[in-house]
Amino acid sequence: MSLGEFDIIAKYFARNSGRSDVLLGIGDDAAVVATPADRRLVVALDTIVAGVHFPAGTVAADIGYRALAVNLSDLAAMGAQPSWMTLSLSLSESNADWLEGFSRGLFELAQRHDVALIGGDTVKGPMVISVQVAGYVETDRWLTRGGARVGDLVFVSGAVGEAAAGLALIQSERGDSLAADHLRQRFLRPEPRIALGRELRTIVTAAMDISDGLLTDLDKLCAASGCGARVELEQLPRSSAIGELFDAQTALDLALAGGDDYELLFTVDPLDVAKVPASCICIGRIEAGSSVVCVREGQVVDVKRRGYDHFSAKESS
Predict the structure, then answer these.
(1) Buried (b) or exposed (e) across 101-139, using 16+ Cβ within 10 A?
(2) 145-188, pLDDT tens digit by residue?
(3) Which of 76, 85, 137, 196 fits as disulfide partner to 80, beta carbons 3.0 to 4.6 Å?
(4) Strand partners, 47
(5) CB-based contacts of 101: which residues, under 8 Å, 6+ apart?
(6) Are 248 and 169 in contact (CB under 8 A)?
(7) Distance separating alpha carbons of residues 27 and 14, to the nearest angstrom
């Protein structure tokens, strides 16, 4: 039996989060929430589209998880603590099994970070999923892309390229090993670095998450900060899983241009390096100018692939 819009909302998405700051949630024309006087509200919205952000055949629970994860990553990059979300869901049909799986994946991650679903919309159409998240940050400091200064060191929070490698394995339907499983999960279920973003809030000078590729996103950070950067290729974190399944040049391309890792990319004054968690890796330095260059053994390397752009070629160069 096909479910109607309000049946879908009631059965799969209307649930009590237990958050005391949700004064009025799903079921009315809009939600009402209470905001603390000593915090600032941080809001982000991301949309994922079938065939663009995830392949056909992706398990519904993974789609639900990923739809929220990519948004939580934006809050992590701002140093914010997530609180609420709204959901816009366009579906060609109301498939009960799909809806059960999608809502399960969505709420699995939401419960982990104490995020309440407080409203949204459900319509019939091509599969398009938009999640808006909101959270708090202290009034004295939040992170932006625009604070990097010449001499700052550039860090990443973990291995880059693994999600793109996982997507390649999914698309090619190859890889039957623990390494392949790890890479596929890195694409399907990225881990938003909420706790790390909160920890970095008073340490770093600029930050953003890596969604479109390391070099493309570093280009964005440098443009916002009015500077350039130098990336030392020898310092890039190496993924043993990628090394097991891909050749060296492909591994480098994935690390520099792959995207979808949702690790944090940030800059730090050299005087504050001792405060950076040991799990984060220094990959270069902010420099004068406006270019992001890659260097190996002191020599500039010409890099063709830089990342993803929706409105140009599949990968920018």
Answers:
(1) bbbebbbebbeebebbbbbbebeeeebbbbbbbbbbbee
(2) 999 999 999 999 999 999 999 999 998 888 789 999 999 999 99
(3) 137
(4) 130
(5) 59, 60, 61, 64
(6) no
(7) 8
